[in-house]
Design goal:
This protein is α/β, with parallel strands linked by helices and about 350 residues long. The chain has two domains: about 170 residues, Alpha-Beta Complex (Quinone Oxidoreductase, Chain A, domain 1); about 140 residues, NAD(P)-binding Rossmann-like Domain (Rossmann fold, 3-Layer(aba) Sandwich), CATH 3.40.50. It is about 30% helix and about 25% strand. It is built from eleven helices and 17 strands. Helix 4 packs across helix 5 and helix 4 crosses helix 10. The longest helix has 14 residues.
């Protein structure tokens, strides 16, 4: 029996190594050898014990790039040696959402690395239909297609088009991805974040204007960026109830607000502002194949690149020891990628 190294969250704040059998691909599956994996906020919340709908023990990892090493029966369109990225959402394809094409919000969705074991291991067997060929994308960028796809879905929900004024609130990985993809669509994009470090990253890595939402002249600065007006489209990627409650105040009349950041509690928006602006407010969850294809295209063309959100690198072989000091306690971490031994 061939074995592999696996990193397991045994319980909150306890990450341990385990030796497990190397899986074999079932019919319709592909076996992939891990090359790179992104570290998501979900992984951090799971380590801390704050991730909803999560059970222990669990193998984390859903932002994955790997190499196909074996194929199960009936798999077509892939071949061993091919580099692939994972679409980690396993949808039932039977519920009303799936039947209407919204597989991203399937009623029975299961996410690899969240609801079932993921890719913090040497090998993983996954449905071949959930793999995206990425031979023309660098591995560390391919591992980040999933968070970029979440951003792309939010931009698509907002129906962003060229020359529109777009305010992105929150300069974490998803917000930065939203800003980059909206800018690639030709929009005039401004990023708001309370962190000076993250604003500086957005300015340097994306070349976009930023503003501090806590400053006394925030609204004047916002209007100055948009020719005296508020934003037509506001996309909130903070997950902060204070920011989310206030977001309706940041859009012009007739504008659109998309929440891609998630807050577990209730939101209380000013109804008078909502009604007088005839605002459109919507949520954005996960991503669809269309969004993954869009991100792959933007990466292959050079309009998206990993450095837009990536600012830390980790070795899988030492991750159990480095996860708490270098990930959990790293106040300047935006997005990290794990590299696996080849």
């Amino acid at each position: 029996m061939t074995t592999m190294n696996t990193l397991v969250i045994a319980e909150p704040k306890k990450m341990v190594w385990a030796t497990r059998p190397q899986p074999l691909p079932a019919a319709g599956e592909a076996l992939i050898k891990m090359i790179a994996a992104g570290i998501c906020g979900t992984d951090i919340h799971a380590w801390s014990g704050n991730q909803p709908f999560f059970s222990y023990p669990r193998v984390l990892g859903h932002e994955l790039c790997g190499e196909v090493v074996a194929l199960g029966a009936g798999v077509e369109g892939l071949m061993p040696g091919q580099r692939v990225a994972l679409i980690p959402y396993l949808s039932c394809l039977r519920c009303d959402a799936c039947q209407s094409g919204k597989t991203n919000c399937c009623e029975n969705i299961s996410v690899t690395g969240v609801h079932q074991d993921g890719g913090f291991c040497d090998y993983l067997a996954v449905p071949a239909s959930n793999l995206l060929p990425v031979d023309n994308v660098a591995p560390e960028a391919a591992a980040l297609i999933e968070p970029f796809a979440i951003s792309a879905h939010a931009v698509r929900r907002a129906n962003v088009s060229a020359d529109e004024h777009v305010l992105v609130v929150g300069a974490g990985p998803i917000g930065l991805g939203v800003a980059a993809i909206a800018a690639a669509a030709g929009a005039k994009v401004v990023v708001a974040d309370t962190s000076e470090f993250r604003r500086a990253h957005a300015e340097k890595a994306l070349g976009l204007a930023t503003i501090d939402p806590t400053s006394d002249d925030f609204y004047q600065a916002l209007r100055a960026q948009f020719n005296g007006r508020l934003a037509l489209k506001v996309i909130d990627a903070t997950g902060s109830p204070a920011a989310m409650n206030n977001a309706v105040n940041l859009m012009r009349h007739g504008g659109t607000l998309v929440y891609v950041g998630l807050h577990k509690g209730d939101l209380v928006i000013p109804d008078s502002e909502f009604h007088k602006k005839e605002a459109t407010i919507m949520g954005s969850r996960n991503a669809t194949r269309e969004d993954f294809d869009r991100v792959r295209e933007l990466m292959a063309s050079g309009r998206l690149h990993a450095a837009m959100i990536l600012n830390a690198h980790f070795a899988f072989s030492t991750l159990a020891e480095t996860f708490e000091p270098q990930v959990i306690n790293n106040r300047e971490l935006i997005k990290g990628v794990i590299h696996f031994d080849r």
